[in-house]
Design goal:
Blueprint (H helix, E strand, L loop, with lengths): L3 H10 L6 E3 L8 H9 L4 E4 L5 H14 L4 E6 L8 H17 L19 H10 L3 E5 L5 H9 L3 E6 L2 H10 L3 E5 L5 E2 L14 H11 L4 E4 L5 H9 L4 E4 L1 H4 L8 H7 L7 E4 L7 E4 L16 H15 L22 H11 L1
Parallel strand pairs: 1-9, 2-3, 3-4, 4-5, 5-6, 6-8, 8-9
Antiparallel strand pairs: 7-11, 10-11
Length: 350
């Protein structure tokens, strides 16, 4: 079990004045958001999993132009997809009528639109060159050799875990802190093995389990939206709290108008876990996609190729109901204000 002195040392080493971390949220975070959060004394994050190595490099440079403070760069370490032509064709055929409703046609075929960090040599090399202060892993861990190289470069490492076994693997790999992702969290569930049973542990139960079991600091994530939630996480032994949905309504995020409107409406009161959008379980505001009850969904991120295409077709006709509107169970507590003001508000509430 880590001590309070260890926890304070980690915060200092990460350049964090306030125990608040803005979740990476690939596709929603921007350099402006990450920089604003870091400049406010918390830790901003960039989610680069959906970017090429060069676009990720540009995002890092843009963030550095806006802040001299440390920030986190997050990558996805999922098991690379296994294509299945029959499943993919059935998925395309099943959703083709929906495309026709919007005067569009689905793609002829689906592709693995993102490369997992576990085999993305270009992204690995870019991070070793750019040396961001912090790199975090989601969906699993990269090879031991990659972790060793990142640590040798002086980069601090975080890894998300949804249970004790995943946390143990991260600790054995040498990460500096574990992000305890509770089932309340918005966006993609960080499970390492989709075939294994998911116990669906809540944020505070998981945080206590990890704090009690391991000597590395623990960061609580999932459903935390205000200062009271952050305080509760710290009271349970977390070194800091990671908030994602709380920052979506900030003007610096890239959330589109439909996403923002849904978050500000009664829709925020209902979130569901779905595989239909991307091929992996993810918590989303209830919408047209979450109503799909399908078992044979293509692998992540192959399914996401179609999900993004359908959202684009519907959005072009003014329908935002097919979007990846990721949100945690605390979504009704979201507040629309500049990121720096939100960090200050959170701190005053603690």
């Amino acid at each position: 079990m880590s001590t309070q002195a260890d926890d304070r040392a980690l915060l200092r080493s990460l350049g964090i004045q306030k125990p608040i971390i803005q979740a990476p949220m690939a596709g929603t975070t921007t350099p402006a958001l990450a920089a604003a959060v870091s400049n406010a004394g918390a830790l901003g994050s960039l989610g680069v999993a959906a970017m090429s190595a060069e676009n990720a490099r540009k995002a890092i440079h843009q963030t550095r132009e806006l802040t001299a403070k440390p920030f986190n760069v997050n990558v996805f370490c999922h098991r690379p997809a296994t294509p299945d032509a029959a499943v993919e064709r059935a998925w395309l055929d099943w959703l083709a009528p929906v495309f026709r409703q919007y005067g569009a046609t689905p793609p002829q075929s689906l592709t693995e639109i993102y490369t997992s960090f576990v085999e993305d040599k270009a992204m690995q090399g870019m991070l070793l060159q750019e040396k961001p202060a912090i790199v975090s892993f989601h969906f699993g861990l990269p090879p031991d050799a990659v972790i060793a190289e990142l640590k040798h470069a002086g980069i601090r490492l975080l890894a998300s875990a949804t249970n004790l076994d995943e946390a143990a693997a991260a600790v054995d790999a040498g990460v500096d802190a574990i992000v305890a992702q509770g089932v309340e969290a918005g966006g993609h569930r960080g499970v390492f093995d989709q075939q294994a049973r998911d116990d669906g542990l809540g944020t505070f139960a998981l945080t206590r389990l990890l704090v009690s079991e391991f000597d590395v600091p623990v960061i609580a994530a999932g459903g935390i939206m205000d200062g009271a939630g952050i305080t509760r996480a710290i009271d349970r032994g977390a070194v800091a709290a990671q908030l994602g949905t709380a920052f979506i309504a900030c003007p610096e995020s890239s959330a589109d108008a439909g996403y923002r409107a849904a978050l500000a409406s009664d829709a925020s009161k209902h979130t569901e876990m779905t595989r239909a959008i991307s091929g992996r379980p993810a918590r989303c505001l209830r919408n047209r996609f979450t109503a799909i009850d399908a078992e044979d969904v293509p692998d992540y991120p192959i399914a996401y190729d179609l999900g993004k295409a359908l959202h684009a077709a519907a959005k072009a006709k003014g329908d935002f109901g097919w979007g990846a509107q990721w949100a945690g169970q605390g979504a009704p507590l979201a507040r629309a204000m500049p990121a720096a003001d939100l960090v200050a508000k959170l701190r005053s509430e603690m």
